[in-house]
Amino acid sequence: MKAIFLCAALSAGILLASCSKKQEIPEMTYIPETKAKHTWYYFSDGSYRTTAKPQYAPTAVPKPWTEAVRISSAVLEDSDGTGSPRGFATVNRSGILVFKGSDIQLCADTEIFTGRTAGNLVFAQGVPFFSVYKSTFFNERSNVHQIKHPFLVQFNPTQNVMYPIINVENLGLSDESEITDFLFDGQYWTCSVKKSDAQRVTFSYITFQAKEDISLITPYTAQKMLHVSDADMESFRNAKKPLAFSKAPERLRELLRTIPEDVHFSVDVYTAGGHSPRTYIRAKNQNAETEELTARALLSDTWLCCLFSDGTLYLNGALYERHILNGGKTLGIKLPKLPADFVYGDFVISGTMLYASWEETSFYETKRSGFISVDLDKTLYK
Predict the structure, then answer these.
(1) Buried b (16+ CB within 10 A) or exposed e, 164-196
(2) Using CA atoms in the order 262, 268, 269, 273, what is the torsion angle rounded to 10 degrees?
(3) pLDDT score, position 307
(4) pTM score of the predicted model
(5) Alpha-carbon distance 6 to 341, whole Å?
(6) Per residue in 195-209, pLDDT tens?
(7) Is residue 44 a contact partner of residue 353, using CB atoms and an 8 Å limit?
(8) Integer Cα distance of 71 and 33 in angstroms
(9) Is 110 helix (H, G, I), strand (E, B) or coil?
(10) Can you tell me the distance from the alpha carbon of 109 to that of 127, in angstroms, rounded to the nearest whole number?
(11) Residue 244 burial (CB < 10 Å; 0-12/13-18/19+)?
C-alpha cells in the first residue's frame, strides 16, 4: 500500500523548539539553496530531468498513486566491503533507479512495468526483488487471459536487467487473481490476493517459502521449488500491523528521543540489505485516528538515518569511508522546503549522496514527482 500520506507537515522548528530545555537538542543543518550541494529531478517521458525547483517541473495530470510515475519503494544493499553500497528504487510504470555514489542510472523495462503497479523492493540472499500487479479497476483488459502474469521480479544489479521468477499461476492462483501486497520476513512471503470477476471482488491470503535459493527459481521451476499454503486475513494483518514505537530498534528510539512526546508519527523502518520494513507508531492512543507525521528510517552498519515527510532528517554515525559525524551525537538536517501539497518519501544514501523522493499529492492521487540528490560530503564534512 502507499506509504506516503499528505499530512500536516510540521517544520523542524516545531519538532525541535518544543523540546524540554533539559533535553539535548540536535544541531540543525539547513541545506542551502545552491545547486552545488543538491539537485532536483522530475520524471517525464520515461526518464528523469533536472529542474530548479519541484514547482517548476511541468504540470502533470493527476493519477491514482497505483498508476502514477513515482518512486514507490527504495532499498539499500548491505555493504560487502568492496565499494559504496548501491541504492535501488522502483519507479512505478517506468523501471529501476540505481544509485551508486554520485552516479544515477534508470533501467527501464516497458514489458514488465507498462500497465502494472510496481513496488515492495526487498532483498533475499543479497539480491533485490520487487512485485508487480495489474489493477482490475484501471486496466480494462486485465480480466483477459494473460500469457505472462508475473508477480515477483528479480533485478540483477550486475547486468542491470530484470526478469520475473514467479508468476501468479505458480502459486496455484487463477488468472483473475493479483497479489496486491506482501510481507517478506526473510523466510516466509505472506501475500494478499485479490480476485476479480464480472460479479464481485474477493480477497484471500497465502504464504509461501522457497525450498532453495529463491534467486535460482524461474517460472518453469517455481511450482516444484515453492511450498505454498493457505493463510488468513488475521495472519496477514498481524504481519503488517504497526507496532508501538517503544518496540522499535533501540538505535532508532535513541535517534528520535528529543522529539516531543506530544508529536505523533509513524515510521517505516528498513535495514540495508534487509526484508520488508516494519512500521512503528508513536501516539498516545494507538487506535486513535490522530493526524500524524510519516517517516522512513534506514539502518546501516555504520549509520542510521530517518527522514520525515516535511524534510526533517535525523542522522547519526559515519557515512561510507568518512569519520563519525558531530562527535557521535545526532545531527538534524532540514532538506529544502517543498511547496504546499508536496511531500518527501523514500530515500537511500549511497556513499555520501542522499537521494530522496518527492511528489505532489492530493488524497490518493499523485501529480508531479521526482527525487532530490544531496551531496552530504559537501554539506556535512566541511
Answers:
(1) bbbbbbbbebeebbbbbbbbbeeebbbbbbbbb
(2) -170
(3) 98
(4) 0.90
(5) 7
(6) 987 778 999 999 999
(7) no
(8) 24
(9) helix
(10) 18
(11) exposed
